[in-house]
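worker-03 picked up job from queue 'complexes'. Input manifest follows; two sequence lines, order preserved.
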Amino acid sequence: MAEMVNLTIDNQKLQVPEGTTIFESAKKLNINIPHLCYHENLSIYGACRICTVEIEKHPRLEPSCATLAEEGMNVKTNTLRVRRARKMIVELLLANHPEDCFTCDRSQTCELRKLAYDLGVKELRFEKGRKYHYVEDTSSPSIIRDPNKCIQCSRCIRVCSEIQAVGAIDFVNRGGKTQVLTFFNKGLDNVECTTCGQCILACPTGALRERTIIDDVWNAIADDKKFVVVQTAPAVRAAIGEEFGMPPGALVTGKMAAALRRLGFDKVFDTQFGADLTVVEEAHELIERIKNKGTLPMITSCSPGWIKYVEHFFPECLENVSTCKSPQQMFGTIAKTYYAQKAGVKPENMYVVSIMPCTAKKYEAERPEMRASGFQDVDAVLTTREAARMIKEAGIDFQNLRDEDFDEPLGISTGAAVIFGVTGGVMEAALRTAYEVVTGKTLAKLDFEQVRGMDGIKEAEIDLDGTKLKVAVTNGLANAKVLLEQVKDGKSPYQFIEIMACPGGCLGGGGQPMPTNDEIRKARAASIYLEDKGKSIRKSHENPAIISLYKEFLGKPLSEKAHHLLHTKYTKRSRY
Amino acid sequence: MMKILLKNINKDGYKPDVQSYLKEHGYQALKKALETSPEKVIDEVKKSNLVGRGGAAFPTGLKWELARKASDSPKYVVCNADEGEPGTFKDRLILEKDPHLLIEAMTICGYTIGAETGFIYIRGEYPKAYKFLSEAVKDAERNNYLGKNVLRSTFSFKINLYRGAGAYVCGEETALLDSLEGKKGQSRVKPPFPTFAGYKDKPTVLNNVETFSNVPSIILNGGEWFSKIGSPLSPGTKMYCISGDVNKPGVYELPTNVTLRELIEKYGGGVHGKLKAVLPGGTSSNFLLAKDLDIEMDYPSVQKAGSMLGSGAVIVVNDKHCMVDVAKRCAEFFDYESCGKCSPCREGTKRTREILGNITRGDGELSDLELLKELQEVMYDTSRCGLGQAALNPIRSAIEKFTDEFKEHITQKKCPLGICPMEVT
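worker-03 finished. Artifact:
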């Protein structure tokens, strides 16, 4: 038990465990001290100085995020002196910030803009000055960096190195010329950036954003020759409602399908169909690797940020990664082959759009391997945020839409596919299928509680009717790194590992609504498990559309055709 | 006149080698220290009332005691030889002309706090100091004043040299430590202070060259002896650097009860022209005027007069200088040297430079003066390290003490001395 300390904040007495910051202490009193560089998941940086407070007997103001509560401390968070300081710092930041709020991607979610409003900044007294005209980094297929909007809070740098163990960006230069840059300013696409987009979620301003492809999608919809189908990832339905003022994690599957239909897509399908297909292929791959003494542990391959990470940082582990394409890509291939045939559409006229919680999916779709249909399998990837903007642009009253279903057959999915959106879900889905395939028995309890929850690393031992299977599940690449070091050293105790690049899994992806924080991630996870529970079919291999697909087209799991269309390979990549 | 720091250097034929040093009782203090307990050494340093000469004036004995008592290990001794404050050039003398004095002092400190490793962080622009120190360290090792089993005791101590890369902010102790660790030189959040978590987050004593160099004499002559020299408020001697519009600029070691007037008129050879303003402690201090010259040059007295002694860089400004121009130059320096980590300093120094630049071009507004005052208060209140906290001191004091000169620039668009460009008409 930590020692407790007594302090007073704004005349209210409270007791907190030793080691608690003033910022956290104030939170317990429902005082949310204004801040910019503080982030709940990241180390303390203490540089924006917005969260500054007055402490009795201290000569200067102190940053509440970086100052620990001490016995007898008397803190004031809201004095004239404190407010004047905060306001002036915001004024200083604004003096060096572009004034294009109208057209800025973060217009609605900019923390700097909100702060300026909240703190009552009414005039910009420093507004004469020089503004830098830095060139945007547009090299990445997923992420665009606009250094002009950077306020140097280091949240992107910290999330990239601390949560993701990547470190693709850091500060260069000094003083007013400080910039966040990639190694030798080579651009995000030419360094070890995994395109996960956690930096976008962490950024308080518009300095980081996804590369938008909304216009291309509108143009495709408007093009009579194009047959435009859309797929939506599992994590989108538990988050997109937030963009329309609904509570975090609101489950809006039916409204989403309805809205997409109104946008003009020819067919509204579901990535979960692809997820079910992935489960069947991947479960069989696992069984085969175990039977034939193939490379183990096998590691899941649905998260493209994770794939790029392993290619850059652990190329010696590439054999461990499942050769299965991700659900998005399996869907794209099947849409342009099997479904195109079935619907009588020429594949060259088929335009596949996906809506993903993810920025790395934009990169994944452009990978040269992802053209098994003879064309780029997925034409355009929209983030959850971009999809919401299209719905807003079309003036659709999202909240009041009546639920509609997905179209058949690529809209049919099981509960096992829904949980792909949350950490542990792919593992659980694969286990449901693997158990029944291996044992030939019906699984009594479908919920694998051991692999659920938001812990960084979870492990479990599953009994496949005598065959013991040791598995691990991880989310966030810094956690994955721990498991990969074991794999690299040949010391991994597991046979099967699920890795998701983003904290919480896809529901915490870099393309999700802002804010995405611990509490919101939990709410989205709860909705995803709720949807699984409510599904009539909860095992991928029982999906009737998948069964037909194998019967009519692929033959059996891991067949030659399945290999050609649904599996891929990976490439060793250098760091820079 | 009493000399502690320059006692050897001023002697004819004195060389920066171990033989010269030994002739002047060199390494006797180390020998004496090793024969007594670390606690006794700390006692003597505490009794001396020596305070840090880098500018913050923290009691040296207390610092050493805190590091000795810190439970974590290993411990480190770091010497701040990144002398970069404009107008400061005193540490250089010791580094180049009497390096063994510093080596002996650091070794005593290592013994006292229980450290086996020391670092000297040398200003990048001091190549000669680096060269002489490197030779001196090797010499000391050869003669068993450094290295394994110093003077055949059980105590071992090693000194590593590290050259800075020219950033002013690395003179700030935590930025120095980060730089020493190979990181970008930027200040850390304090607390924890270096005595608890310094180099590699281990207990570290970090002292300035001048501070350390007082220690051998304190050990040899006793703390009480030292405490009676100079001003009782912060005893000892101090190396003052006099520069600017004086006839005899240079480094003068004098007891701390010397007055600013004596310093300028007697030692500095007087002002050429008429004295307009003085910075008593480098560009981070407030300007003093001719009426302030009778203050004693110890830490508390200078502070009482509304400025600070800092590193002891006395910069004299005569009446041929425009104070707006002087303030602008200070602002340019801090804008250039701000590390850029915390927003008030990074953005504040930038805007200050810009505003003062505007005033010198005849493009200022009266409200600018109020804005700069407020900015000084906010930067003092919120900047992360001393650089930002003090950056606007000279500027604000120039505005307050030479208000009419600033106003004339703004309202008349005229520089009375014809120094500022005044392009806007």
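worker-03 released lock.
Chain A has a mean pLDDT of 96.
The radius of gyration of chain A is 25 Å.
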